[in-house]
Amino acid sequence: ATVASSVNKCLPQIISLVNKAVELVLADGRIFYIGSGTSGRLGIVDASECLPTFGIGDKIIGIIAGGDAAIRNSQEFAEDSAEDAWKDLMKFNVSKKDIVIGISASGSTPYVLGGLSDCKKMGVNTGCITCNKESQISLNSDFPIEVVVGPEYITGSSRMKAGTAQKMILNMISSSVMIKLGRVLDNKMIDMKLSNNKLYDRAVRILESILNIKKEDAEELIKKYKNIRIAIENHKEKK
């Protein structure tokens, strides 16, 4: 119960980061999440959901210390390299058009700190999500988000309250950015990728609601265009 109130206190910081991220993405920039362990996995989960949810897959990118193998299994000492994050970012040709958001509960993870420090040196925009005030990672971030959740119930873990807060903030960042980019109409996901029957059925219901048409007509539009936004645009043109 205390996590949500802790996140609420960070709203001004979250808004500042979101506004900058939108500005950069509109200018052909990208959002990168970097982290290790739980923090890295949370970034990858949030980034990977943007394609099926919002139909956009190359604007929010998650990177974890230790590479893809670390998504499933812990990679020993992967987080201890201060040089590897920049190497990983350079695989994507990160530039001044982008923003790199470091995720670290402690605010001191060498992988994240090194990556943000290198970004600052190269003029790349930086942000962070951390659970300690005035950490080294915050000091290396143009747009720090410091969500202080207090001690974990189980001492020595940072994947519980801290992880929950980080996930909530990541949801807020990606959802807000996508709404501001126009990937949502009202509260409807009109750019979602129709990759299974459940999403096809949802698309039909969305069209029924937005266009005020019968189910069979919505089904025909989805069958023809396989995209909610395109179906809406073509239906309105014909009217």
Structural notes for this entry:
This protein has 239 residues and is of the alpha/beta class. Helices cover 52% and strands 11% of the residues. It has helices at residues 2-8, 11-26, 37-48, 50-54, 69-72, 84-90, 110-121, 136-139, 161-180, 197-211, 215-225, 228-238, and strands at 31-35, 60-64, 99-104, 125-130, 143-146. The protein has a five-stranded parallel sheet, sandwiched between helices. Helix 8 (136-139) links the parallel strand 4 (125-130) and strand 5. The termini are far apart.
Could you tell me the number of beta strands?
5
Cα Rg:
20 Å
**Number of helical segments with 4 or more residues:** 12
In terms of DSSP E residues, the strand content is 5-15%
Judging from the principal axes of the Cα atoms, what is the shape? Answer: elongated
Compact overview of the structure:
This protein has helices spanning 2-8, 11-26, 37-48, 50-54, 69-72, 84-90, 110-121, 136-139, 161-180, 197-211, 215-225, 228-238; strands at residues 31-35, 60-64, 99-104, 125-130, 143-146. By secondary structure, the chain is of the alpha/beta class.
Secondary structure layout:
Blueprint: H1 2-8, H2 11-26, E1 31-35, H3 37-48, H4 50-54, E2 60-64, H5 69-72, H6 84-90, E3 99-104, H7 110-121, E4 125-130, H8 136-139, E5 143-146, H9 161-180, H10 197-211, H11 215-225, H12 228-238
Parallel strand pairs: 1-2, 1-3, 3-4, 4-5
List the main descriptive attributes of the protein structure presented here.
single chain; 239 residues; alpha/beta; 5-stranded parallel sheet; 5 strands; elongated
